[in-house]
Each structure stands twice: as C-alpha cells, then as structure tokens.
Automatic annotation (TrEMBL):
Active site, renumbered: E45
Gene source species: Nocardiopsis flavescens
GO cellular component terms, semicolon-separated: cytoplasm
Gene3D superfamilies documented for this protein: Diaminopimelate Epimerase, Chain A, domain 1
Record keyword Isomerase present: yes
GO MF term set: isomerase activity
Keywords: Isomerase
Protein name: Phenazine biosynthesis protein PhzF family
Record-stated family: Belongs to the PhzF family.
NCBIfam families: PhzF_family
Presence of the UniProt keyword Iron-sulfur in the record: no
C-alpha cells in the first residue's frame, strides 16, 4: 500500500502556504486511480512521482512527475513540485531532482536553505479585457495579459484591491483560462502581491501558486527593471516566494514543511 505525505509549500511554518499531497511510487499506476486519490485528498493538487532511472519521457531525468487537481490532470504545478522535492529530501534522496513532466524537464535544487525550482517562463502578452472580467473579479483592471496559452494576468489598483477581492467564482469559471491572476505592487517588504483563482479546474482559490509566478515574474521584472524579486500571495493562508527571472526560465525559491504522513488503504 502506498505511503503519502501532506506538505505545506511556500512557507516555513505548518498550516500556512499551500498544502499538497505527495505520493512517491515505485510502479506504474492507473490514471483513474490517481484521479480518484486526488479527489479523495481534495487539495488543490496531489503529486505522483515515480522513478524512471533515465528511461522516462525526459532523457536523464530521475522521476516522472504528474499533478492532479480534484477534477483533472494539469500540465504544470509549482507548489506540488516543491512539495515533492521536499518529500525526497526527507526520504534522504540526494538532489538536485530532475522531473519529467507534461511541461518538459523541471529541476529542483537546494540553495541557501531553500528549494529552487527551474520552470519555463511565460511572459504575458497584452490582450483586451474579456467581457465581464471587472464584474467577475469585483475590481477594475489596469492591465490584462495572457501568459502561455491559458493563464490570465490582471493588474489592479493596489494591494488593498487584491486583498479585498470577493470574485464571482461561477463567472470566473466561465472565462476560458486555467488561472486568473490579479496582482498589484506591494505596500510592504514584497515587491508585488497576487491571488489566484482557478475554478475552471476545480480550485476556487489556490493558496500559493508556483505556476502563476512563471507569468508574474516576467511581468514585474519588466515593470520594476530588475530580475530578482520577492512575492507574496495574499490568500487566507498566504505564502512567500523568491524569484529570479532568467529570460526563458524562472527560478522560484521557497520553503516547505511536512504536516502529515500515512499509508493509503488502496
């Protein structure tokens, strides 16, 4: 029976950041089983890692890594990748860790007490605001862009506007985007703040989202004129990230804490 861990990512204390369930498996598994397990945990993402010994989809990788929300498999998830690397650290597996994923080969390495993920950058391209966006968010957009194919970045007036959002989740779900990411300059120590809504894939609000920062980092690097940034995701749980924008890549640094471990009776 497989073991699991629940790990809070992008935080250095329990019960904050973004929780992910992580399963390190030895053998192949059924997709329907994995989706059922993710639905049972009912966290924003559950990660399934399986050693490939260099023979997987990504040559030279160590693990195949997949992510499931409670309703669908997704192409990229930051906090569950960080959580998976943290689980491997706890298991005594030496890094760096190279994961074969739907988004290519992703690497996680430890540096100065943090785990750093190397992800593809998705610089947002300006688009017209979708009809009904302001009403759906409950705030007037200052700038709107799309990162990659399906992540919508929306700059709003200020940090208070981000924190005060009470969006119409059903209206957000009707927009043709995986993530809707409102953001603004921060008032405090961070460079910027954000929140992330993903009801289209079964996650009304994601507590802390690595994937969103592959869009946010290029945007704010351009706006602020520097490539090293600090970010705070202003969800109820909250989370902190360090970012290094490197052209076609974004390095995302954070802490993680294990809060539970056990065995599935499956």
């Amino acid at each position: 029976m497989p073991d699991y861990r629940v790990i809070d990512a992008f935080t250095d204390r329990p019960l904050a950041g973004n929780p992910a369930a992580v399963l390190i498996l030895e053998d192949a598994y059924d997709d329907a089983w994995a989706q059922g397990v993710a639905a049972e945990f009912n966290l924003s993402e559950t990660a399934f890692a399986r050693p490939v010994g260099g023979a997987g989809e990504g040559p030279g990788t160590d693990y195949e890594l997949r992510w499931f929300t409670p309703t669908v498999e997704i192409d990229l998830c930051g906090h569950a990748t960080l959580a998976t690397a943290h689980a491997l650290v706890e298991l005594g597996v030496p890094g760096p860790y190279r994961f074969s994923t739907r988004s290519g080969v992703l690497t996680v390495a430890e540096r100065e007490g943090r785990l750093w993920m190397d992800f593809p950058a998705k610089p947002p391209v300006a688009v017209a605001a979708p009809e009904g966006l302001a009403d759906a968010l409950g705030a007037e957009p200052l700038w709107v862009g799309v990162g990659g194919a399906d992540d919508l970045l929306v700059e709003v007036a200020d940090e208070a506007a981000v924190r005060g959002l009470a969006p119409d989740t059903a209206a957000i779900a009707r927009l043709p985007y995986h993530l809707v990411i409102p953001t603004a300059r921060a008032d405090g120590e961070a460079d910027f703040v954000s929140r992330v809504f993903a009801p289209r894939v079964g996650v009304p609000e994601d507590p802390v989202t690595g994937r969103a920062h592959t869009v946010l980092a290029p945007y704010w690097a351009r706006r602020l004129g520097r490539d090293e940034l600090s970010a705070h995701q202003a969800s109820a749980r909250g989370g902190d990230l360090l970012l290094e924008y490197r052209g076609d890549r974004v390095l995302i640094g954070g802490h993680a804490v294990s809060v539970a471990r056990g065995e599935l009776n499956l």
